[in-house]
Design a protein that fits this description.
Shape: elongated
Strand content: 25-35%
Helix content: 10-25%
Number of strands: 11
Number of helices: 3
Largest sheet: 7 strands, antiparallel
Order of helices and strands: EEEHEEHEEEEEEH
Radius of gyration: 22 Å
Amino acid sequence: MPRLRTTSGALAAAALVLVASPCAACGRTSSTTNATAASPRSPSSSVEPVLASAKREADRLIAAFPVPAGATRLNGQPPHGTALPPPGTGVQQDVVASTGWWRVTGSVADVLKGAAAHMPAGGIGFTSGVASRVPGGVSGSYFVYPARDLLRVRDVAIEMIQVGTDVVIRVDAIVAYAEPKPASGAIGRNATVVVASMVGHPGPGGTPGRVYGATITDPAKVLPVAALINAAPLALNTI
């Protein structure tokens, strides 16, 4: 998605870089039974509360999964679990994930249909069958929930595989968060000029993204645009 750059002030004195919206669905993450951060860096003191909130949300999403009747919660990845890899995410840093495993008697088709029909309200679900080297293949659903404050990505991935008369279930909750915007990044109410530019992501081979810009000097527009920019979250760290 494009990035929004803004410069404001009587003589255009400050700069701020933002991302218009989050990216989701195809990179790397790490998953465990309880929510853990995929990023190797140490969070700053301003990020720690958001990180803690993201971990709680990931664990909450796992707890909200509608476990099929008669299913047994597993302590970790079972032998056939290697056929159910962790889902990817387009967010490279600032992401946490929590994973749950279950085993239940039945068919993948019936178990997946039942679970998908009883997922918590508010998510948009996508169901698909994925070819696998394991007999019976892997089927799954992916649910995307709306952003909430600084928690910009709230997704749940469900994967299932048939193992004899049983179904092995893997559920991953993926939560990506944006860093709190520093006070120094806000455009003040005395701003008289806003220079805004949309910066596209680099193209193939690292070619620079296109830049589209506008300089706003109309007093009736400067403050509304500044308010819009101030309200936007900082960028997610995307690929």
